Amino acid sequence: GQLDTTCHAFVGETVVLPCTTTPPGELTLSKSMLYWQIDQELVHFFQNGQDSLEGQDEKFHGRTSLFLDQMKHGNLSLKISNVQLGDDAEYSCIYRQTENHQTKKSTIKLNVTAPPRIEKPPSPSEQNQIPSGSPMDVPCLALLPLSFLLLVLLGIWHL
Fold it and tell me: What are the pLDDT digits (tens) for 71-126?
């Protein structure tokens, strides 16, 4: 159960959670099952060569997909689109071959963060509305002598 990798995504982005089988070789998809899950929550399920999403957790509905063209070569990665804060979790990629009952599992942690907010500078008309002696300026002025004094004291202390 140790983590194989950690992925990072911002809300609204598309992220690919990597999962590959080793050694790489032709996988018989018609005799394979692939589960992507968080604890007991089903994120994506693939069996008998196709997606089987009846039991998929509602919050992932329409947002997950596999790389079907690359699966037979061992790429079992899961693509999640429009990532949400609630998607932040540890995902298990569980691949099972039905004929020889071989099971491979890997764990991928997805860290989701809110997108960085881009602050736009106030337009000139908004700047004019704040009177020049506004209380907003006072804390800055009050802090300046204090920090200057600390710098001086630290400077002397180092001598």
Answer: 989 999 999 999 999 999 999 999 998 888 788 999 999 999 997 777 766 666 55
Report field, pTM of the whole predicted structure over 0.90: no
**Residue 41 contacts by C-beta under 8 Å, 6 or more apart in sequence?**
57
Domain ranges of the chain: 5-110
CATH class of 5-110: mainly beta
pLDDT digits (tens, 9 = 90+) for 5-17: 999 999 999 999 9
The strand order across the sheet containing 15-17 reads: 15-17, 78-80, 64-66
- For the record, the structure tokens of 43 come out as 């994120």
Return the DSSP state at 139: H
Between CA 158 and CA 152 the distance in angstroms is 10
